Structures are given as C-alpha cells and as structure tokens.
Amino acid sequence: MLIRYAHPAMQQIWSMENQYKTWLSVEIAIDEAWAKQGLIPAVDLKAIQENAGFDLNRIGEIEAQTHHDVVAFTRAVSETLGDEKKWIHYGVTSTDVVDTANGVRLKQANAIIREDLEALHELLKKQAVQYKETVMIGRTHGVHAEPTSWGFKLARWYDEIERQIKRFDEVATAVEVGQISGAVGTFANISPEIEESVCESLGLHNQPITSQVLPRDLHADYLATIALIGSSLESFATEIRSLQRTEIREVQEFFDKKQKGSSAMPHKRNPIGCENISGLARVLRGYLVPAYEDITLWHERDISHSSVERIVLPDATSLLDYMLTRFTKILRQLEVYPDRMKENLDKTGGLIYSQRVLLKLIDAGLSREAAYDLVQPLTAKAWDEEIPFEALVKKSPEIQATLGEDALSDAFDYQYHLRRVDEVFKRLGLN
C-alpha cells in the first residue's frame, strides 16, 4: 500500500497495530462467549479484559522464532497475563481469528467507502440539476451527433453511481462476516453458539458453514465490485479528459495558480487528476485475477490466499477511497465552459440537425428512403465544402416544396432535443 494513494484513516485500518488490535478483540470476544457458557471463571475473564495486551516488537521477536504470526501474537498476549492466559485461543484455530478480524477491518473500511460513494452521488445530483439545460454536442464514435446537455451527462453518472452503491452495499455486507468453527470448520471443539455470540459482539454476521476458512468467493465478489466502481470512475474521468482537449475545451480540471503542468512547456494545463483515476482503475482491475484464484484452496484450507489478501484487500480499499475522494474533488472544482459548448455545437453549420430535417420530411408525406436520399447529399456537400447545412437545406427546391420556412427553422432549434430532459430527470428523482 503506497502512502501516496492512501488516506490516514485507511492507513490506520490496515496498519499492523490495528491488525493485532482486532485480533485481540476477537480473542477477548471468544473468551467472553466461553464465560457465558460457564467454562471461563468470571475472575479470569475480568483479568483478560483488563490486562490482555501486546507489544509489536515482542510479536516480531517471537515470530522470528516460530515463523507463525498468530502463534507469535497469542504468546505475546499471554506474556501480559497470569494463569488466565490458558484461555487465550481456547478451542479455536488461527483462521478463526484472522478471518473474523478481517471482517472487522473490512467493515471499518466499508464505512469510509460508503461515505465516499454517497458524497459523489450527492454532488452528481446537485450538478446534474445545475447544468440540466447547459446545451452541448453529444458525440458518437467521437463525431458530432445531436445536442444533449452537460447536466444530462452528469445525470447518467448519477444513475451509475446509484447502481454502484447498491452493488457495494450487497458485497460489503457479505464480507462483514466472521467464523469461529475450529480446525476444519466442524465445530468439534467449539459450539456454533460461541461463533454467533462472537460475531454479534463484533457487529458481524456469521457464515452458516465454512471449511475453517471463509469461502473466498465472497471476497472475489467484493473486489470485483470495487474494480467495477473504479471502472465507472475511469469512464467519467476519460470523458473529462476528452472534453479538456485543446480542440474541444468544454471543461477543464481546476488549475491552481502555483501549479505546473509541464517541466518543459509553461503553457501546459493537463488533466492529471483524471489520468490518475484512469491509471489506478487499471490497478484495481488487476486485483481480480488473484482474487478469483484465491477461491480455489486445497481441501479444507491452505494459505495460498493469505499473502494475496495482505496486499489486495488493503490496496483495493485504500485505492478506491482515494479515487472516490479525488474524483469528487475534481468534479466539485471542474471548470465548465457553456459558451465553448455552444460554439462547438454550431461548429458543423447545422449538420447535427440532419435527422430532424429527415423526420420532418417523413412527417410531411415523403417515404423514409426518399427523405434520406434527399438529405444525405446535402450533408455530404456541407461536410466536403464546409458550407452551412442549414443554408443548403433552405435553398433546396425539393425541401422547400415540402416544408415551409417555419418548419425548417424549427428543425434547427436545439431546444427540441432537450424537451424530454425533465421527464428523464423525474425518473431519476432529480426534480
């Protein structure tokens, strides 16, 4: 996990200090559950609750000898206790503690990501309404198509993030899970009631059945959704990057007075934030292969997934948090140029209204084929000779004979293309 792409709150969640802190919380919760069943005396439980602790350096010293981090941890904890230390790790195995503690840490990370998603969702809602009627050219295949609005584009993003929030809620809940089922998951040395009590006390749900380890399809699904959210952000960022190109320049990332765009060219103002989002989205997608491969373990368990998850879970959650907050800031500070949008809208001399002319001719009685063959040569002439399409249409004897002056003028009114925007916004709850 690179500090450059991790906020302090996420760094703390995935720190070694918090790893052992959550391991200890699981161990104590297990002993509390045993005490409820009458196995552990109240006096011993109280001593554990009040005195159990750990020292990071001591854990490291023990692990250097044992080559087992959980054994090193439990022995370091035992050194802070008296005779009651015999109840530490009683009836459980390493993965019971590690998987359940990971559920706690994922829940902590998920709370941050949920806030990030909601913040972006709310900003998109606000800006979609603000720019609802800010007309711009819609492009297909990179070529001018027909008018749309900047707000309409933002409304699509708003709807996409709403879907991502629903997806994330589902997979996040699935990994906020624990299991305390023993060596091969059969509860031979511990009861399901202990598991249920531990998970409830930690704010987790318990997995109905395990094989000592939680099923890793849960985590693969989780990471796939994180990658999918990252891909949405990349899609939005790519649109901004494209619209910031010099030839278009309809929007632009905020550029601070002291900011430098290039070490060589003083004039440069580059969309570095959105490029950063695009790059990090590739990293998130890169975690999908190891996440999927972690699903397959030997028999009841092995630890081939462990090394992967020590990297991908901290990195993926930290990167998504970083990307969401960075893109939200980009969007909040984005410079929008409505005049430039209108200028680009008019750049083809009215060619973007060719379908409107076509449909008016059909409405006036021509067949679709006849109307299309009448309009298309005029569009070609407008393209090739850079003559305003509207002028060619109004000079066409065949079109003049079919459509009056008012009908022709109406065909070149961009407002027609925005007339359903309110209806679509109402669908989205963007009234």
UniProtKB/TrEMBL annotation:
It catalyses: N(6)-(1,2-dicarboxyethyl)-AMP = fumarate + AMP; (2S)-2-[5-amino-1-(5-phospho-beta-D-ribosyl)imidazole-4-carboxamido]succinate = 5-amino-1-(5-phospho-beta-D-ribosyl)imidazole-4-carboxamide + fumarate. Belongs to the lyase 1 family. Adenylosuccinate lyase subfamily. Residues 349-429 form the Adenylosuccinate lyase C-terminal domain. This is Adenylosuccinate lyase. The gene is purB. Pathway: Purine metabolism; IMP biosynthesis via de novo pathway; 5-amino-1-(5-phospho-D-ribosyl)imidazole-4-carboxamide from 5-amino-1-(5-phospho-D-ribosyl)imidazole-4-carboxylate: step 2/2; Purine metabolism; AMP biosynthesis via de novo pathway; AMP from IMP: step 2/2. Pfam families: ADSL_C, Lyase_1. Its EC number is 4.3.2.2. NCBIfam families: purB. SUPFAM superfamilies: L-aspartase-like. It is an enzyme of class 4 (lyase).
